[in-house]
Specification:
This protein has about 70 residues and is an all-beta fold. It has one domain: SH3 type barrels. Helices cover about 0% and strands about 40% of the residues. The protein has no helices and six strands. It starts with 18 loop residues before the first strand and ends in a 5-residue tail after the last strand.
Length: about 70
Amino acid sequence: MNIAHFPAHHRATPAELESVRLRVDVVADGVTIPAGAEGVVVAVYGDGKACEVEFIEPVHAVVTVELSQIA
């Protein structure tokens, strides 16, 4: 699986169906998805400021993350 890496100083907006990795832990509905978890972008919002990402492991979840939270 290809993982998109976006340098902090010049981040590109990921495209739908692109694989990404969390830079930080994200809590959604009381479940923590740990930093390093890999997911797939299913939607892009606000001119790329946030994305809806589906994670399969370690828990199945679809969450909205800010661009700064993904690597």
